[in-house]
Design brief:
alpha/beta, Aspartate Aminotransferase, domain 2, Aspartate Aminotransferase, domain 1, Molybdopterin biosynthesis moea protein, domain 2, 15 helices, about 35% helix, globular, binds pyridoxal-5'-phosphate, transferase, carboxy-lyase activity
Amino acid sequence: MKLPLLEGLLKYNDEENLLLSMPGNKGGIGFTRDEIGLEFVNRMGFLDITEVDPLDNLHYPEGIIKEAQELLAKTYKAKKAYFLVNGSSSGNLAAMFSAFDEGDEVLVERNCHKSIYNGLIMRKLKVKYIEPIIDDELGLFLPPNKENIYKALENCSKPKGIIITYPNYFGITYDIEEIICNLKGIGLKVIIDCAHGAHFGINKRLPKSLASLGDYVVLSAHKTLPALTQGAYLLVNEENDIIDFYIKSFTTTSPSYLIMASLDYARYYLDTYGKDDYDKLINESEKWKKKINKLGKVYILSESDLDKHNDRIEGYKIDPSRYIVILPKGYNGHKFLDYLRDNKIQAEMSFSRGVVLILSPFNTEEDFKIIYETILNLDMRNMSREIEIKYSRNIPIKKFEPYETFKLKSRWCEIEKCEGLVAKESIIPYPPGIPLVCPGEIISKDVIAIVRDYIINKKSIIGVNNNKILILDIN
Ligand SMILES: Cc1ncc(COP(=O)(O)O)c(C=O)c1O
């Protein structure tokens, strides 16, 4: 008898890795903060119950789910709040369907999540991309700044709304409060994908929360808070009843009570312990950051480093509950992730020059010591890069809207022969899960070089199969 998945999961758990990745509950540790959380995690297997009286119904909440969602709205100071059991992905889709109609023109960040690209196709939206900002020196993507947002807006003929990611996957934010207010002032609908920022605002040392500012704000509680994977929140600040229909449409009719209960716990955690726990975490993370940086092997980024490299742009913040660890020039972030993994540290993601570690209030002094000692023992000679590669700054030329490509004929083509052809599907390196090319765009030489980098480094890249890319067969 074989049980490959369960056995694999148990084996991973037996390794007792230090989880500096999602989920925010850190393998259940986050629920052990107090008695009620401990009871939840200990009785988890017995609490997988369905909609029986008096447990309420997520699709028509009138009892305990309604009460829990009302408390959630209060915590985030939003008009209305919903539990999502299918991640922020379902929240992004529901928000896009509710805010926009077929054919609407929408401003979208180039670096947005796949679920938003899916929404563009499903809702048949016309897309205007906001140019990404790439820090070549560090190999990082930064959130678009004011100039890029307004530049994209000028290229629109009749914009209906904007979808903004806050923060990006690195935990970097740009101060967009005023921009959002201006855009709302000229009638644009604003969706904020705040998947990585469910903890924002709970402590003044964290980036600002935009929870009450966007018309729709999506938060992946499971990424940074003590909630189970898939658990997320959708906050709605505009009067719009059709959102209920779309949330229901993108949600199973058998929502997990475990996920919903964990979402209730995550909100309670923020209310009860959030401010103080994040204070302690930030103190620790700052203290160990200095120690690690003094080792002179890797470098954990600070905001001032971003301003230094991007002298024109100010206003970036880095979530202090994340470490963006940069290797010296010429060294390989993907190899560093493997090194950490070999030493039982699970990083969230790697990129060409480094890794991202998601810290949490559940990290102990001992955890920081482990990170420090692992870096102390790092032999830089094993981290060298095979090739030096830069990300492409330019947005590829769009030949078709993403939804227009959906039903067009396609064929697989060798990567090296794709220059000048039109992509049928997104090409998305994981991590960070940001498309290099979107459906309907022309594949450039730069894109081919980046794809090669991922393949050589044996990192997964969606949209590439046996060194081939799916292109439109339109000639
Ligand atoms: C920016 C962003 N938005 C949305 C999502 C989707 O979130 P979920 O996994 O909760 O569906 C992710 C997931 O990584 C993300 O990084």
